[in-house]
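Contributing: when you submit paired examples, paste them exactly as shown. First protein:
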Amino acid sequence: MPRYLVERTYPERFDIPLNEVGQQRCQTIIDSDALDGVTWLCSYVTTDKRKTICVCDAPTPEAVRRAAQRNDLPIDRITEVRVFEPYFSL
């Protein structure tokens, strides 16, 4: 399955509280993503909470876009990536 970095800029601040409400919001996103075969792996949030970079597995960039639209999440850019581990042996 391809892996993507999804860059997002929020007009306000990215704000998912670290409580039951936030946990439910994340679960709703996860469930909605699954409708298009998207698996949200993790996100990095800037200190000002205006940008995120999300890592997800998905069949296509279009699947990522559909899931984001359904979850009312912005998308600036989608980039397909491959994992490079610095601890490899020859």
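Second protein:
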Amino acid sequence: MVKIDQERCKGCGLCINACPKKILKFSPAVNKQGYHFAVCIDNESCISCALCAEVCPDVCIEVYKEVKA
């Protein structure tokens, strides 16, 4: 699962380019700073590789892996 802090995202697109599953896109909405922030469009397809979080210069992405009991 990908969690993006929409208010801290400056819309650089590095996470979108880094995602191997191509499940990150720019939102049509803008944040308070006026940037189109990144959103995850399919958390079910996320493989929790965390490449998006690693390339984010603003450290506004967290990746969680669901543990099935």
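If you have annotations for the second protein, write them as plain sentences, like these:
The beta strands are 2-4, 24-30, 36-40, 61-63.
Residues 16 and 22 are 7 Å apart (CA to CA).
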